[in-house]
Amino acid sequence: MPSTPPTAEPSTDSKDGSAPPPLLALPPGRAVWLVAGPMIALGLLRTSYFLTDSWFVGRLGDGALEAIGGAAFAWWMIHICCDLAGTGAHALVARYEGAQQRERIAGTLVQGLWVSAAVTALLMALIPGRGLYFDLLGYGPATEAYALGSEYVRVCLLGCGTLAVYAVVTAAFRALGQTRTALALTAVTLVVNLGLDPALIWGWGPFPELGIGGAAWATSIANSIGAVVGLVILRRRGIHLVLVQPERAVTALITRIGTPITIAGLGFSAVYVLLGRIISDFGSFHMAALGIGHRLESLAYMITVGFSVGAATMVGQHLGAGSPERAAESVRAALRICTAFMLPCTALLMAGAPWFFDAFTDDPAIIESGTVYLRWQAVVFVAMGIEVVYEGGFSGAGDTVPPLIISGSLTAARIPMAWVFGYTVGLGIVGVWIAIAVSTGLKAIVSWWWWRRGNWKTALTTE
């Protein structure tokens, strides 16, 4: 089992005599698209999880809809933490694949599962203090949204282990470029989630009536099924995961790569928790608008994530094969194709915003606020794509500190900007929406500048 990252020296032959990674022989744009295409479909399916939960929960009333809107940031923080091991495993497995050191992949994934177990234990320890989250959002303890949101977050924390394992399993397929398999797994979990959502919320047939918590249980069960199926597929493809003791050097390396991205994601959500105090000050219904808006916006965001994964996979594989120039070319190709996708997304959500919100609620105040929010964010969809693709490039190179600094500082800047635009300038809630959009544009500019410095090329090989 290795204790250091793979070298950037290209191998002429793999130790097991297998053929070189096929993606490396393709033009960068073609290779990125082969990885990104299924990942885009996967991301849209994953967004369906959120939209499905919101739609079913919305049938429970506006209080439940407001609860899941506020809990969305907590769910996102849980998701980000559970992906810590997946981020580290992705970077290393892609390197090993590019360097044709495939015998090291299975052991790395097992160590990733140990990191996932540690993350799960830490998250479950937070269950007793979940009420503090809703206190920070400004939800009164006696309100329906507080009680329902607290129950939803409790179940999410109880089931987070299934998400953590699933993240490592799907990271393996992404790093190997087998994103069609990852897509198929997500499709299976979505079907399971769709079937279990109404059954567990309302207690259909033999299932108990769990209310808003049923939506979270449905997702956890679906993730566990996806993880088991994924492990079986890996074994059939020659990657046999045998449980061994944790190796400190490897788990530390996986943690070091994944932690900056996790901290950045946590900071992103924490900023929104604090922004929630400002948003709620203009009316609590704006939180429901933001919750739905985030889910609709994620349709475009998940497309950018697809190209981010394409960039990460190809950067990792090309660096493993000793070709940083091809790695950089892959990122440029990902940016071009991603921009071509973001432009029609901008037009679609700008024009259709009120109709999309109308599908989730009949409250005119929520629809009006959400429409303004979504249109402001659509303006910077191209910038969002630039930021996320560069983040994927950094991640694939194992250089995850720059995304932490860029995302952490400029996302935090949304709080003072929202205060200035909302209160000082007097724009109200529109000022908050504008502050979010402006920071997205700034993150794209700084990401471009930092990537051009080129330090990512030796982030792991110089350790």
Could you explain how this protein is built, in words?
The two termini are 18 Å apart. Helix 2 runs parallel beside helix 6 and helix 2 (62-82) packs across helix 7. The protein is an all-alpha fold and 463 residues long. The chain contains 17 helices and no strands. The protein has one domain. The longest helix is centred in the middle third of the chain and has 36 residues, at 285-320. It is globular and about 60 Å long.
The shape, in one word, is globular
> How many domains, as an integer?
1
Biggest beta sheet attributes: none
**Cα distance, first to last residue?**
18 Å
- Total beta strands: 0
Structural class: mainly alpha
Using the CA coordinates, give the radius of gyration.
21 Å
Order of helices and strands: HHHHHHHHHHHHHHHHH
Mean pLDDT across the residues is 87
Helix content: over 70%
Question: Which spans of ≥5 residues are poorly predicted at pLDDT below 50?
Answer: 1-17
Q: What's the tally of helices?
A: 17
Proportion of beta-strand residues: under 5%
